[in-house]
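Let us work through a complete example step by step.
Step 1: write down the sequence.
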Amino acid sequence: MRPLTDAELAQFQRFIFEQAGITLSAQKKALVMGRLGRRLAHHGLETFTEYLQLLASGQDTQEVQTAVDLLTTNETYFFREIKHFEFLREQANAARGRSQPFRVWSAASSSGEEAYSIAMVLAECMGNAPWEVVGTDISTRMVLDAERALYTMDRARHVPPEYLRRYCLKGTAEYHGKLLIDRSLRSRVAFRYANLNEPLPELGQFDFIFLRNVMIYFSNETKQQVVNRVITALRPKGYFLVGHSETLNDVTQAVRAVAPAIYQKPG
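Step 2: predict the structure and record it as C-alpha cells.
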C-alpha cells in the first residue's frame, strides 16, 4: 500500500464533506490513512486513488457507507459533560405529572453511551410516567453497536455506582472487563440511521435534543443548516444542548441561551 498523498487527502476531504457535511482537517491525514488503509487491503488495492475511484464508481454503495462510518466515528463515554444530565434530571422531575411522553433525542449518538445515559436518568426520575429516548447516527456500524449495548468498563467510569448496579450487567468469562446495558433499559431506547445533512426521518417532537460535540466538525454554513433542520423536531419550551466547546451564537435565533451550552425554544 502506497502512502496517502496530500492530493488524495484533499479528495477524501471533499468526499466526507459531501457525504456528511464534516470538515476534515489536514491534521487528520494519519487517521485517514490508518482507518481506510484496511479497506485497501480488503479490496486488494495498492493506492488510495484506486479506492477513491471505487467510491466514486457507484458500484458499491455499502463501501461508501463503510468509508463514512470509518471517517465519522468518534470516541465517547457515559455521562460526558455531567452538568447536562443534572439539568435533564431537574426537568424530568418537573415533568412527572403530565400524561404526554417525555421524549429525548440523542441526535449524534455514536455507539449509544449518551442515549443510555439519558435513559438511566429518565428511568430514575420519571417513575411510571411515560418517556422515550431516540438515538440517531450517520454511521450504520455505530447504530448496530448501540443496539448491542456492550461496552468496555473504561467507558463507564462516570456512571454513578447506583446506576451501574441497577442498569448494567457486569461481564464474566469471555466478557470480563465489559458491561451490558440491562434489557429493561435497552427496550426503552430506539436507534436509527439519520444523516443530519439530509431531510430527517419522521421522529416526532422532543422535549430535549442533545446535539453535542459534533458541530465542531461543521463549517458555519453547515451548522446553520443542521441546527435549523434539527430544531424543527423540538417542542415549544424544549431544550437544545450542545457541547461545552460549542455555541449557537451566529448559528440560529430560534433558541435562546439559558445556561452554559443549553438553549431553549420559545413557547
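Step 3: interpret the result. The chain has two domains: 6-72, 82-264.
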